[in-house]
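Can you give me the bound-state structure? Components:
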Amino acid sequence: MAELYLPSTLQPLFAGLPRRLDIDAATVDEALDRLEERWPGFRDRLCEPGPELRRHIHVYVDRQRATLDTALEVRSRVDVIAAISGG
Amino acid sequence: MSKTLVLVGTRKGCFILESDEARLEWELRGPFCEGWPIYHAVHDAESGAIYAAGASEWHGASIWRSLDLGETWTQSSDGLEYGDSGLKLSKVSGLTAAHGRLLAGAEVPGVFESRDGGQTWKVLSRLEGQPGSDSWNDPANQPPGHLGVPAILPHPEDPGRYWAIVQGIGIFETTDDGTSWTPRNKGLRADWPLENPEVGYCVHKLVMSPVDNDRLYQQNHVGMHRSDDAGVTWTEISDGLPTEFGFAAGAHPQERDTFYVIPLDPGHGRCMPDGSAAVWRTRDAGSTWQRLADGLPQQDAHVGVLREGMAIDRHEVPGVYFGTSTGQLFASADEGESWREIASYLPGIASVEVAIID
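Here's the bound-state model for the whole set.
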């Protein structure tokens, strides 16, 4: 199970969504699919058509910048970061 | 006793001000919508819901809904997309609730519809094939700057008939629910060269008189205009105003010839002229204009008002409201004769709408 950490900006949008959860997925893309199944609309908040990650959403897998295609290991740590932007 | 609600969309969320029929004391609630930039918040009189169109820098465009006058909110963007076309939806803005459905305008230009209270959306039209569409559909230019549909004006009796503004292009009318469109820009002035005289007009705001559906008014980049034939032809009515430029406009709910605008300096500043705040009103369809400023700051007030920044209620003596892009909200309970500041420190205001709740 990969260990997933989410930004605080997502919790108010989806009832019961935790900041940290375990996900059984082979890629970042699959992990988002698992979350979409439990919280409909979740994927749209992180991705835009392509699909690709939104411009100000960064994902790191084991501290390396990742894309939707990045593979996850059983013990991977996945950090989803809402990049510093705006004012 | 009825409530008067003023819905305010700001750079940092949606706010609601509440008063009674007298509209003298106001209570502010918010921010709502998790502080997302809200471009337009409206009340749907049929369902009682409030909807707010927003676009987060992080999480994209979505439309928020509250079924309890702002106490709780949910959001959905299900269907707010252009599929495999390669076009990117960067923002939703102009919301319209009419005839049992919601319409939303989007960047890249498109009109979206929801028939389930904003839970799911589908694109009704991208105005494909209309003059100007090549520029906004250019795959090398996605998203195409701030080119979108900022507003949709519904016909109050005919669900399939409405007008859409495309920024920098002009007004288009459909009478068959978006299947076909007709440019409605005849008689408008452009201070720049036009390749096609049917389009190329920078229309900021379009409103209809509630008592005469053929009477439309528009504020555009270079003037105020009036139409007496539902937009087929336009006549300029800028004479007597301090500038030709402005964004916001509003029609009187009972008098077809009464109409309000907020002229702004046309340069980069886009503030009210001379640091002196005023709303301007005509009571004769644009032949003459009166400056309304009693109670508004008359010195060092360098404030601007955006396209959805003014609203007029439907009380017997109508109230007029406007919000500035620097966060001040002003209200008049006497048709603009006198004004009070009812909120002073909001985030920059993008939209103001008013609803009467019985």
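A couple of observations. Residues 3-357 of chain B form a domain with the Methylamine Dehydrogenase; Chain H fold (CATH 2.130.10.10). Helices of chain B lie at 133-136.
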